[in-house]
Fold each of these.
Amino acid sequence: MEINAETLIPLISFVLGSAVGAVAVYFIIKRNTVPKDKFDNLNTEKEIESYKLANASENIKKAEEEKKILAKESAALREKITEVSAELSSVKTDSENKKIENLNLKEEIKKLSENINTLNEKISKLQSENTALHEKNKNLNEKLITQKKELEDIGNKFSNEFKVLANNILEEKSRRFTEQNKVNIKTLLEPLDANIKEFKKKVEETYDKESKQRFSLEEKIKELVELNNRISEEAGNLTKALKGSSKVQGDWGEMILENILENSGLEKGREFFVQEFLRDDAGNIIKTPEGKKMQPDVLLKYPDGRTVIIDSKVSLTAYERYNSAEDNNEETDKYLKEHILSVKKHIDELSAKNYDAYTESLDFVMMFVPVEPAYLLAVKHEPDLWQYAYNKKILLISPTNLIAALKLVADLWKRDKQTKNAVEIAERGGQLYDKFVSFVESLEQIGINLNKTQKSYDDALKRLKNGRGNLITQAEKLKQLGVKAQKTLPSAFSDNRDD
């Protein structure tokens, strides 16, 4: 309930006036009352009246004094009333302001409530999306874990099979190598033995005919000397080619490696690259801290974008000396150690290049040894050689093992192509289905339009030949009236016209 100043001021004035009057009456009655003991002592009525008069005068004086006091108090109360009125006016103004503020606050509260509802809806939607994303992320993580486990299982299986295969191949190759060496030596010596025997026979025949054919014999000997010199020279060239310089051996090893890659089913320039420089994301050639360009022999690509680096390393010098010193155990042991040290040196040099730090490659580099017997000889007499290389993130691999590994990579590329083809087939199937739906919709629209056309045709036909006074009837009547015409209406129209 609101109390305004106009209502409150008269009310306060009435209350104050009533209070002042009540107080004045109280004091007058009190002072006009005479105690009984005094009254009894008065002898006459005059004395009583005089006493009352004196007492009344005194009371009047006191009443006037009290009136003055009440007047002052009344003035003070009026001032108080004025102050209260001012305060009430201020309160009223504040109340109006508060009302306006309250309305504004209510409007803001309403807007905030709407915003809160909107935010709650967004939060609910985001929570739903977040739940879906969490579920999707969970599924992806589970799939990733499964794929990692499958890859680890495949790697372990491949590693175990590789070791077993390497040991079997090592034993088989060693046996075959020994047998093949014997066959090769026999093959080389038999023609030489036959030539020596033939030469001996010719010498004997020549000696028997020396007296008659001395000049001819001298010519033959000269030819044989020249032939022997030529054979010696060619044998020396062949030996140099086999021993060769490091550059010649390296080129030969790279040629063997590239030949195996080209026959593996992999596509050059897409799935493997020969003598390519390593480059960063900007296409710049990567260099070592010493400023040397990084150029491995082969970059073998996996379908997932990772790279396997293959470097060919040839160790023929000590190996050739080892084969040449088979009858000398001391020299054999010496050259065997040199051969193993040469292989280890290649491992250390390849590990020091640290290829995996410069490209998105696997954690290991393949070191290709193109001479299978040399590889088997080193692994056989140094059982820890393979582990020594593996600890340095190097995989020793011979031509036989490389062919098997490349077949696996080629199979991965084949599966990747099949997967991409399946995805493309699915996409094209979706596009084909969309086109089919569009065609059906267009066909349906054509049917609707044909129905509309048929209806329009029927309506036009009705106007043409149905009803009294139709166009056909009018035209026929004109003809009957003598209009000359060269053509006649079809029977379907002329027979069905209305008269």
Amino acid sequence: MEAINSADYQNVMSIKGLSNEMKSLPVCISELFGHIEPTDELINCSLRHLSKQSLKNLDSNNNSAKGIAQGKLFESVVYEQMLEILTKCDFVRAIVKKKDDAIIFSQKAVYGQNGLFYNGEGDIVLRGNGQDLGEFDMLFVDGAGQVCFCEIMSAIPKGHIISLANEIKYKKRILSKILNQESVPFLLIIAENSKNKIIQWKNLLLTEESDSFITFPSIEEIKSKINNNSESVPLNSLVFSEKAKELNLLNFGINFDYKEIHDECVKEIIKLCRSEDFNSVNFLDRIELIKKQVFIGIINPKDIETLLSIHNIVNYKNRLSASEIRNNHDKIILAMDIENELPIIYMKEKEKKSYLKMIFTKNNEFHFKNKKNQRNAGLFEWLQNMDNNISVEDSLNVISLCS
């Protein structure tokens, strides 16, 4: 399909047959807008979503800061464009607001929090018991009330395809569960210069007939249209859309208890560890709805010697003894890093509201990673509220299972 300039999108709306109920929203969008060329005005309007520092970082010498800023710009341009072109599409019932349009509705993560929320930057995040499980670049609701989500990428780094595919798979699975929706269509929006990668890996990324993708200009092309002489960045979008809704106005019917799902998965893991063939089973298949970490249980201080006889615990190159651990810490928690398939130990410092996070290394030891405190509200409260114990035998089996 030829590139469509966003200024001419009204003409495209006259195409018949694309609101067919048999077609998913991503497929309809893809058939209407295979490639979109945003106007200069829209690109400059999208700058309202970027902070002053992000605007400066667009041309930074720091490649990391520059990459983050460019990703935010690309995402903001796509958001503004989708607001404009989808507002008159019959097959779209709602577009979920985000960024500058939603930042006033942001909520801090707290223990026990489940559902979709806005974080401090106005991004859409799914939280489970106060933990951020995933971020959704955009959410749409089609004419039948079905939710679909969107991933926006200005670039796809080398080696990122597998992790992207896993992320899409998880988001489909968790949204299907909490929305009670049989399948969740997915739309991938990428820069034109990444198109060949997507075509090459299409079967891995777009796994269902309801999934599709569209392209935008490269970030370099978008940046070239920024008006650096403008006195101020627009405060509002170019278009007012009644279909643009805040999360709290959309009745998604979300009703799930992530802690309950998590605790059932812990039982599955313990059960698996006690089976004779636990080393031959992929434990990730048993915890498909869990993201980031599984908090297994509290290790009895009396069992520290047994644990240390097999796995050292090292803090700043200092190999800790059992007495040092007991004297300086009053809670030892075993957890699992799902994404990296590694065991973790959290050690609560006595008379302090902080935990030392110790991660498993290749040399069969736990090494200090960082501290977690009340600033990490959801995680900290989860650790504080844990009261289930785990035997040293089960602890060692869990470590063996995921190391």
Amino acid sequence: MPLAQPHNWIVQTEPDPAKTRPIRCQDPQQPSPQAPINGRHRPVPLKPHFDGPSRHTALYTTFLRHSHVDLGLPSAYALTAALTPIPLLREATLAKLKNTHPRRYPAPGLRTKSDAERSMWMPLSVIAALAIAAVALYAVRNQNPPSVPVSRSAKSSPPPALPPKPIVKPQPLPIREDELRHAVAGPTGNLVIARTAQPQATSLDSLLQRDIQRMLDQIGVAYGSVVLIDPQTGQVLAMAEARQPDDPVGAIGSLTKPTVPAASVIKVVTAAALLDNGVSPDDLACFHGGLHGLDASHLKQRPTDRRCETLTLALARSSNAAIARFALRDLPAGALHKAAEAFGFNRKVPSDVAYQPSRFEDTGSDLDRARAATGFAGSSLSPLHAAWLAAVVASDGKLKRISAWDPALTLSAAADIGPVDAPTIKPSVAATLRQMMVATTEIGTGRHSFARRPHALRGMAIGGKTGSLSASEGEIYRHVSWFVGFAPAHQPKVAIAAMVINGWKWKVKAPTVARDALGLFFERAANKSAQATPLAPAAELDPRSIAL
């Protein structure tokens, strides 16, 4: 209900009725009212104040105007003082006093009450004034209530202490290839790099590294390298290489740089892309030729294409024409490139070892795509990346990082697995691919090398993929051979990559080097297990049980 313009109300104490006359409230523009007759009581004008209406003030103003309680002057003074923080309520209270006390504030049409009637309502008026004052104070307090109720205990209790931030150990810089050549054995059995005043331990096994290095030195190839990775944690277990210093054939070899073509190792990527696009391992492709090369004539279907192979057999035998037919027939555009990225091509895989990413290109004509799918062109690979590629298959596509530092020195492998949006292969694709790769060492291109196995590998199913490619650079002829794989195939404990570069006179190929390196690894694992197992105490014999 809107209020009238505020006035200067005049409040007077109770003078003697015989010596005083009613004093009327005057408008601020009119002269001030007369003083009491005896001159002892001087009215005190109140300054008008108006802050504008609000929800609370409007409610209580309405209550005061419709109330029939006769407020006495003592209670009016108490109510006016209590409502001082709310100017509009103060004005409304004084207006109520004007209407309820016509003898002090006469108005037309109102009946003047006697002193007896006022004294009868005095106790009730005091109680009503106190109640109204309490409600008014509550309204003042809750003019801006909080949006969320807060309990008294929550207000009094201190804010909860923030949990301490976890102490994150700084990650050391990636290991360089030249630092591995000068690494020494540490007290824990791992290789230690003396990079700072305090040597830093790596995940490489010093004894396994020594044995593989001796094996490569005894072979005497132009260049040879072996990398072993734990597929469950991504930790590098060994990185060894050997080269002939005066032989230019092996000068391009490197553990961490993709200086040689991927050759038929890229067929693992092609097989994964085919499986991901719905091709079954038992699907057939008929072809002709393409045993040691691939040209446009091998891609044309002929009535004489009577040689047919399943996808598993084509991968095991590394049949170029069959893999090319599968790729052109069953892979949509971009599928092979997507699979290559899942295996770490054309991108940087999170790694504790400094390395250069491998490349893969499959654009162009059908022949260019077929040659890229079979490894004749468009791809390069390093031994470190090749071992990680095999570890991805062995870990069901879960592995996303290459670790080389001792886990006790840095964060665990589970705490830092690389970017969450990194592409990967499906677990079902990886499981099928593992079974297919076992055929390479049993009936495929690696059967001769793994026919005569070390004692530690006997009876063990080993999955792998071979690759070879020859190229000439002027008078320099190079034959690059690859083997990537894992063992045992049903529950891999190690992933391996071996790369060998030979000249015109070659001595050994990569599958044989990988076989011997796997034998050294499992011999080392057996020795560790024997040392960790305590000997059982000898049983005491009962003398009475000994037959004389």
